């Protein structure tokens, strides 16, 4: 697509330079633009910050008519409309909170054959709920003025994605309602499963999928061993912020509102300038925190994932995950907010087995499937393969012999020692412990299982053998490994206050015993930067 000349090619280049003031396209942008201008349905998959908006904003100016942009985030749409207006590109926005006059104005634009407006942004809720909007859109179509429908964050259609929004399902009617109007879906979520699902839901099966690489060569990836105490975590964060990331901007992600508040407070007590951001805060305090961070008054924001889409700060130098993300898709998006300026930035994750269950109980209560989380754990447990290769493979990208350039902890430290662990012996022991617990009607959490394995905790749960001859932390890794492989499974119990994850034997547990399977576990020594 990129190499071919089309009737619109010279206009595309002119608009790129004169209107957007951009010198050249980034990878795959021109492919996306050409495919949609030639009337094809397409899905554009690009990592966050790669420049997806240009793929519909620029085509909107090439041909007559209106481009509808459907996007879930009001603040993001407001930013876009503002920046388009500065470029003298007429764009309007309609959300469920728009004042009546604005709504009426947008509705009239759809009917008005003489309008000069090129882009109309609308939330999926608005589209799904406003009969008048749909009626006027139909009129716009009948007049031949509906040029294109762009659907941002299109993975929100799919339950398999990480951000399902029920109103996105409604978008399935668009391709039938408006035949011959090209649909351009955009997302940073690339798994084949989600993309297929999105095509099905939008009724554009077999459409072009334009995918740019997910490799972010300037991001350094690292796992740090997470201390078991909050005090220990704070001390690591303090050290990182005071020394390694002195005078730099970043985000610390936590998985609960309480954690974000507690950590922010503790870091402030230690003299650091940090803000806190989560969904329970009023909109204007959130905006204030965001601004203070933008202006570099705050070095870091300690946030839940509510601090997400719409962050447009290019010099974010570090993203620290105080708790693992709930999936690799989430991790990629969250860590991807670093280094948009192309300069080196670091993505550090604090990992320890205990956090698996903090997240799994949340994930299980909301979406019921743990596969996504287990993908994240696999990334954390990994001590042998290049981390960016794991990320690429997760997104079904062919890694080949791409060079990491020592931009992950593994490639920096290729001679990490490994330890052979015979699963046969250990699984038998773990299996015995689980049987013992069942006999005495005790439910085992992973921590209790680990204790019993290392001959700690209640005596009646312990086994008759010797204590494993490796570290407890390696024991944690073995249990986590058995869990993501399905040898052990989580068994959730709901109380009025919380969800608890207990450990049961998985269907394969006994198969291991027959297999004499030897695990080659990396011996982690990730307590600090090399
Ligand atoms: P995404 O939606 O993929 O996360 P955006 O569309 O918000 O990314 O673009 C990220 C930033 O990159 C914006 O500031 C945008 O102006 C800029 N940008 C997009 N395309 C180009 C390009 N070809 N050259 C330079 N900057 C670009």
Automatic annotation (TrEMBL):
Any GO molecular function: hydrolase activity
Domain Helicase C-terminal: 235-384
EC number: 5.6.2.4
One GO BP annotation of this record: double-strand break repair via homologous recombination
Compartments (UniProt record): Nucleus
Protein name: ATP-dependent DNA helicase
Organism, as annotated: Parnassius apollo (Apollo butterfly)
GO cellular component assignments: chromosome; cytoplasm; nucleus
Catalysed reaction equations from the record: Couples ATP hydrolysis with the unwinding of duplex DNA by translocating in the 3'-5' direction; ATP + H2O = ADP + phosphate + H(+)
Cofactor(s) this protein requires: Zn(2+); Mg(2+); Mn(2+)
Range covered out of full length: 59 to 588 of 640
Recorded family membership: Belongs to the helicase family. RecQ subfamily.
Helicase ATP-binding domain sequence ranges: 33-208
Keyword entries, A-Z: ATP-binding, Coiled coil, DNA-binding, Helicase, Hydrolase, Isomerase, Metal-binding, Nucleotide-binding, Nucleus, Zinc
